[in-house]
Design goal:
With 402 residues, this protein is mainly beta. Helices cover 6% and strands 54% of the residues.
């Protein structure tokens, strides 16, 4: 979904897009009695990032493109104002005080909508001198329904499912190979539901989201017991929960009746939890019990978009955004202990330090499927970049207006 890490999906970003934007690097955990240097242990603290995706970025990106940019703009800024630049054939003076006309000329502000989006997002994190690289990929579906609550307000509900999977090539870092390389995996079934709201105050646009997600998580790692010089697969299952909220404020300016520039500023607040679990294995050695994890993050986002509108049947948009982690940790931490060796102390597990900021570039648009302007197809693409990783999200959707 549009993240994007940026919980990052979008998943996008986000769909997929917000979750996808904040995944962390993996590290080795030194000083552990029977698994010193075994980087498979560190898959645990990174798995929380599978849980921190949601449809908030998908919703916000879709609203920016799909909603008309001329809602309730003062009359002189509407895409008409002279006989030559009056594609909608209205009398500006006669309608200057008519808020209904002013909000709907050349727009769809009176339409309720149903929409459905398919989303795919990928995170690629590269190996460094301490950590194996890993990748996260997910496919999902997001559905939404919204209603107009007045001439300039919209309230909606959205939810869906995605299946993020983390794959870590264990034992091979950028500078060395520690053991025979194997692939460890953590998979999740992620269900999410949220509410969104949009308000327009004479060209100043407010977009809000609050949503909850629940995850069912299965992991599989290959671990070694140095005393027996052998290895085996360790499996475990747990659950997680996510709470994501977002507030975004944008200012719309119209140029030449068809170009809309929208600088914006926003804040994302993300809380993720995963519960502890004990691993299972065929042999009674080397099993781990992991503790509960909790990760809190608050991001500040600033950016701008440029949208082109062709009458009422075509819209295309380009955007750029910078995000900075104002509060919280870039990576989660977990505690673990060996189950089968009495007296083994708990060990803290952490991901490697990652950049607290990233840059996102995106494009999107929608096109009418018929002459009546009630059915549209919608698409969006995001790429987020920071040191050592990239996150990409693709969205394709359908919009029905009522």
């Amino acid at each position: 979904m549009k993240d994007t890490a940026t919980g990052q999906i979008g998943f996008p970003v986000l769909v997929a897009p917000t979750v996808a934007l904040i995944a962390a690097l993996l590290v080795f955990v030194p000083g552990i009695a029977t698994a010193e240097g075994d980087s498979s242990w560190t898959m645990r603290p990174n798995s929380i990032h599978l849980s921190m995706s949601g449809p908030h970025r998908i919703v916000l990106n879709r609203l920016t493109v799909q909603q008309p940019n001329c809602w309730n703009l003062p009359p002189h800024t509407l895409p008409y104002g002279s006989e030559e630049a009056n594609p909608y054939g209205v009398d500006e003076d006669a309608d200057a005080d008519n808020s209904t006309v002013r909000g709907q000329i050349g727009c769809f502000s009176g339409d309720d909508t149903f929409w459905i989006n398919a989303v795919h997002w990928e995170n690629t994190t590269f190996a460094d001198d301490r950590s194996s690289g890993y990748g996260i990929a997910a496919n999902g579906l997001v559905l939404g329904r919204d209603w107009m609550r007045g001439p300039s307000s919209r309230l909606g509900i959205a939810g869906g499912y995605d299946n993020p999977e983390l794959r870590q090539r264990d034992g091979a870092t950028r500078d060395r190979v520690t053991r025979d390389a194997v692939t460890n995996e953590t998979r999740a079934d992620h269900y999410h539901l949220g509410l969104y709201y949009q308000e327009n105050f004479y060209g100043t646009e407010l977009n809000c989201w609050i949503g909850y997600g629940h995850q069912e998580i299965d992991s599989r790692r290959y671990g070694y017991d140095d005393e027996r010089a052998r290895g085996q697969w360790y499996r475990g299952s747990t659950e997680g929960d996510t709470l994501i909220s977002s507030v975004e404020l944008g200012k719309i300016t119209c140029y030449h009746g068809c170009f809309f520039v929208r600088p914006c500023i926003g804040v994302n607040m993300i809380h993720g939890w995963q519960y502890g679990f004990a691993e299972q294995a065929t042999g009674n050695y080397g099993r781990l019990h992991y503790g509960r994890m909790h990760l809190e993050q608050t991001f500040l986002r600033v950016g701008a978009s440029v949208q082109y509108e062709k009458d009422t049947w075509l819209r295309a948009l380009l955007r750029i955004e910078y995000a900075y982690l104002m509060e919280g940790d870039p990576v989660a931490g977990s505690r673990a202990r060996l189950i089968d060796k009495a007296g083994t102390p708990h060990v803290s597990l952490f991901g490697a330090s990652v950049q607290r900021d990233f840059l996102t570039l995106g494009c999107g648009g929608q096109c009418s499927l018929g002459s009546n302007g009630s059915r549209y197809i919608y698409g969006d693409y995001d790429i987020s970049m920071s040191s050592g990783r990239t996150v990409q999200a693709w969205t394709l959707g359908y919009i029905e207006k009522f």
